[in-house]
Amino acid sequence: MGEDLRFELAILATVQGFYQKLLCDSLGGDVPIPSGLDEASLRQSDSDLPQTLSQMYRWLHLLDLAITPAMLRQALTPDTDPEVAEALLRYFVRRREPSNINRDKTDLVTTFLYRHPRVPGQWEQHGYGLDGALPLSPFEIALIEILADTDVPSLPEAHVQLLRNFDPLREEFSRYRDFNALMDSGIVARVREIKRWLDASFYHPGVLATVAAHNAAFGARFDQLFSRALGEIKQFAQALEEMGGSILSTVDGVEVTVEHVAAIEQKEILSADYGNALEKFRRVSRLKKELDRRPPIRKSLLAPAARHKTGASSGAAAAAKPARVATKSAAPQSFQPPVITAQQISAEEGKMRRVEESIRVFVRVADAKYRQIVPMRYFNLMLSAPEADAYAATFLEEKSERAEVARTLIHLVSCIARVNTELEELKRSQSMSSLWKLHADALVVLLDMAGSAREAAEAVAKTAEKTDANSAKAVRETIQKLRSRCDLAVKALAHPGN
Question: Cα–Cα distance between 493 and 426 in angstroms, integer?
């Protein structure tokens, strides 16, 4: 019993040392330690461990009031000793206070441990089910070991069901290619609501492991899209300043100037307190929307820089550049291909997902003799045997080569279906110029996305041909089908009425 108490006191002493340093750095001066809790006294506290532990807990609870999650986020750096982070996790889980602040701190520490394993790539290996059923991730196993001496909560079935929401959420946010779309999705609020519903179960190792993996993946995607949006805003501000302008737009009744944009620091916002940071993210999103609605002068300002940059531009736009150029050079004066916006791409991705799902439902319920002929609104979509097998596959969530091939075939076929549909709509709207332009614009977006899809599919085919020549062949045949449909779309746009 005495050993357990000494171990617990050692954990709390580690937390106290971390808190003391954090507050000293924040306040610019020393924080006095209560009598009996200094390092020398703790080494001689064997005589009355329970009283010392009680005093330490009260002291740490007081320090907790002065330390915000944002302070903790900034203090946890790649140089932080993992032993310190593990001690903090034990402390927060043992405390298990039903407050947003304690949960957020636990969330931060767990995600830090996930992002900074002791051995690089440690969490990427597959675990084994301790009960012979569902496999445990290596990170969950590590958390079980870290919290082995802690009374963790049980996990009721209702909360197990809540955890299953994280997989579709991860798939959802991975598809967003625009910061505005990500912010408008409400995914941040939805995840926080799930965490709140989990209540005390949030401190279960399985829940913490699931949440940390989500936080790491979402954080990487969020940072990427935010960086891109902020880069575009600053780029426009710079171009406007060079032309002698100073006011970019008005957001919430306040004029946003070039100086305001220049003062925005990405790292500062990303490390700020959640509530304040979220409002700043929303303002950046609203400013981006306002600039996206600006007249064509904005696009002409950004065009020269866009032609020279490579990394920050979207993969789809870069991959489909030949298609757009071909369309523009061949199109008559009556149709000038529009500059593709992130909103258009996001809207088209939504349509494509619905098409994908409708084809999947048909293939899975149709008679085997007819599942390769999918009835669409204006035509029958003909599927090859590998394409139909991909839509009927039950292993699409696997991290395997066969799953990657199947997902690629599905995406290519969905692109083909959407291009076919817009082509048919284009033919039927020849006499209505406004409607014709609507479908023409949609085709330009689809050509952009198809170029990206073909490039990604080529990479998959190249990988697959090393182990499965048939899979590589199937992917390349579908790529050719998509390329043929895109060629027809370019011709239709270049020669309307023919």
Answer: 9
Is 293 inside any structural domain? no
Contact between 245 and 280 under an 8 Å Cβ cutoff? The reply is no
Any idea which residue has 């971390």 for tokens?
A: 18
For residues 205 and 337, state if they share a domain. Answer: no
pLDDT at 498: 56
φ, ψ for residue 268, nearest 5 deg: -65, -40
Amino acid at 297: I
User: How far apart (Å, rounded) are the C-alpha atoms in residues 373 and 181?
Assistant: 34
Q: Write out the E strands in 364-422.
A: 373-375, 380-382
Residue 233 lies in a domain: no
pTM of the shown model: 0.53
User: Does residue 211 carry a pLDDT above 70?
Assistant: yes
Please name every residue paired with 254 in a beta bridge, in sequence order, or none if there are none.
Answer: 251
Q: Whole domain around residue 125: which residue ranges? A: 2-154+199-213
**Cα 31–35–39 angle (5° rounding)?**
75
Around Cβ 146, how many Cβ atoms within 10 Å?
20
End-to-end, the C-alpha distance of the chain in Å comes to 88
Same-domain pairing of 487 and 365: yes
Amino acid type, 64: D
Does 193 fall in a domain? no
Which range is most confident: 120-134, 178-192, 432-446?
Answer: 178-192
Residue 264 domain-assigned (yes or no): no
Q: Rounded CA gap, 220 and 210, in Å?
A: 16
381's tokens: 């979509």
According to the model, what pLDDT value does residue 262 have? 65
| Strand-pair partners of 374 | 381
List, for residues 253-305, the tens digit of each pLDDT value. 555 665 666 666 666 666 555 555 566 666 677 666 666 655 433 444 444 43
User: Among 238-242, 408-412, 455-459, whose mean pLDDT is lowest?
Assistant: 238-242
